[in-house]
UniProtKB/TrEMBL annotation:
This is ABC-type polar-amino-acid transporter. Belongs to the ABC transporter superfamily. InterPro entries: AAA+_ATPase, ABC_ATPase_HisP-typ, ABC_transporter-like_ATP-bd, ABC_transporter-like_CS, MetN_ABC_transporter-like. It is a peripheral membrane protein. It comes from Nocardioides panacis. It comes from the Bacteria. It holds the Pfam family ABC_tran. Its main location: membrane. SMART domains: AAA. GO terms for cellular component: plasma membrane.
Length: 251
């Protein structure tokens, strides 16, 4: 079998007629969605609308029931695809920071680099230090997660994902578990990433971030995309009653 090749001109993420059911519960009811290279696409919508499931399907943490997903031109819903290889190109950051509590910040950032990427310890440490600097936490290299604020832990989680050199980053409500005063630092790191040209899919309730940083905004409800467009347009001039109703509760 020939190795599928990354196609540099293909969309970063291309989702076609995606359906996902859990038992009798159809959670995604035909999603068409794409993210271009270098684009920041934000996804908003009420709790239970299927945002996390969509994001998890893109990383193959969930197996779609039907439909096709392409990442950089490679069909990842092809049963023969190398799942680990797909995942290694996609960084993911969750609401809960998911750091290894018994490992130092530095070790949190080096372990997968050594085990999955096969990097030497020195190389992994150098990459880790570079990414900790990027998220403003160089001085925390020897700290343990429990000694960091939630915002710092989330920035470490971002640095850890970046240390795997992903082509794109998925964020699932990365600031929802944070105290309000810690949200800004995490959003600032994400904004920097976007300005460096990182391709990003961001599930968020931060409408200010979506408006300022997002290139495209998708509103989901009940397992479908109800409305999408330029963030300023969708937020200021929603075309659907369901969007208006949702925005009236969160803005
Ligand atoms: P959102 O992220 O928009 O809040 P989710 O994608 O998490 O929505 O969930 C959408 C629906 O799918 C919910 O009804 C949820 O209960 C259901 N769901 C999500 N994951 C699972 C799972 N692993 N097993 C069964 N049901 C699930
Ligand atoms: Mg969710």
């Amino acid at each position: 079998m020939t190795e599928p090749q990354v196609d540099p001109v293909a969309a970063a993420i291309d989702v076609q007629d995606l359906h996902k059911s859990f038992g009798a519960n159809e959670v995604l009811k035909g999603i068409d969605f794409h993210v271009d290279n270098g684009q920041v696409v934000c996804v908003i919508g009420p709790s239970g609308s299927g945002k996390s499931t969509l994001l998890r399907c893109v990383n193959l943490l969930e197996t779609p029931t039907s439909g096709r997903i392409f990442v950089e031109g490679i069909e990842i819903t092809d049963p023969d695809v190398d799942v680990d290889k797909v995942r290694s190109r996609i960084g993911i950051v969750f609401q809960s920071f998911n750091l290894f509590p018994h490992l130092s910040v530095l070790r949190n950032l080096t372990i997968a680099q050594q085990r999955v990427k096969g990097r030497s310890k020195d190389e992994a440490v150098a990459v880790a230090r570079r990414n900790l600097e990027k998220v403003g936490l160089s001085e925390k290299v020897d700290a343990y997660p429990a000694h960091l604020s939630g915002g710092q832990q989330q920035r470490v989680a971002i640095a850890r994902a970046l240390s795997m050199d992903p082509d794109m980053m998925l964020f699932d409500e990365p600031t929802s578990a944070l105290d309000p005063e810690l949200v800004g630092d995490v959003l600032a790191v994400m904004k920097d990433l976007a300005s460096e040209g990182m391709t990003m899919m961001v599930v968020t309730h931060e409408m200010g971030f979506a408006r300022e940083v997002g290139d495209h905004l998708v509103f989901m409800d009940g397992g479908v995309i109800v409305e999408e467009g330029r963030p300023a347009d969708v937020l200021s001039d929603p075309q659907h009653e369901r969007t208006t109703s949702f925005l009236s509760k969160v803005l």
